[in-house]
């Protein structure tokens, strides 16, 4: 019994000190990388990568790699040859994922088509050309509920248009009139809007461009995504 307890104590102490050493090494690398990148770049964390000798470096939501000395910063993808799995791509997707429940649907323009069973969130700027292209494509979707969050990030005119759309008696119609038909929004713009909340959410979750789409599993699709890719994603969620 005493021998068993001694063995367990040895295993525990070995594991503890090994974990402590790894954590200490990762902190040292983080400090070294941060020092070299400067105060304007925030290193979120450093952890061991799946490849021996490499460490993952998180800068914002971007994945980089470095060596044990922190001397090099490597930009690229790790692909497991046996399976063909892109480890970096999967890691990036996980980092970009959000909780669907974190989205405040009261801050969005809600559109229901068909039975509305499939759900999609879109972050859009009214002056974004790719957003207009996406909106035209989204007209092809059926049985979907789309939550459009206006995030006027392209300048003062985007802010003004977003206010006019939000303050319209029918925000959805005002939005579609502009995005699809090119009819500029008009009317009052001094009502209470969720625009500041939407912009804050975008900054918090690293939404730096429009359009950006989110599905109910939290996955993020940036850019004017093809309808075929949206349908494929919906199918994977069933």
From TrEMBL:
Residues in Disulphide bond isomerase DsbC/G N-terminal domain copies: 21-89
Entry annotated with the keyword Disulfide bond: yes
InterPro entries cross-referenced by the UniProt entry: DiS-bond_Isoase_DsbC/G, DiS-bond_isomerase_DsbC/G_N, DiS-bond_isomerase_DsbC/G_N_sf, Thiol:disulfide_interchange, Thioredoxin-like_fold, Thioredoxin-like_sf, Thioredoxin_CS
Matches recorded under Pfam families: DsbC_N, Thioredoxin_2
Location(s), subcellular: Periplasm
GO CC, any one term: periplasmic space
Predominant cellular place of this UniProt entry's protein: periplasm
Entries under PROSITE patterns matching the protein: THIOREDOXIN_1 (PS00194)
Annotated keywords: Disulfide bond, Periplasm, Redox-active center, Signal
Signal peptide segment: 1-23
Domain Thioredoxin-like fold per the UniProt entry, residue ranges: 113-232
Function: Required for disulfide bond formation in some periplasmic proteins. Acts by transferring its disulfide bond to other proteins and is reduced in the process.
Family: Belongs to the thioredoxin family. DsbC subfamily.
Name this protein carries in UniProt: Thiol:disulfide interchange protein
Species in which this protein is naturally found: Polynucleobacter hirudinilacicola
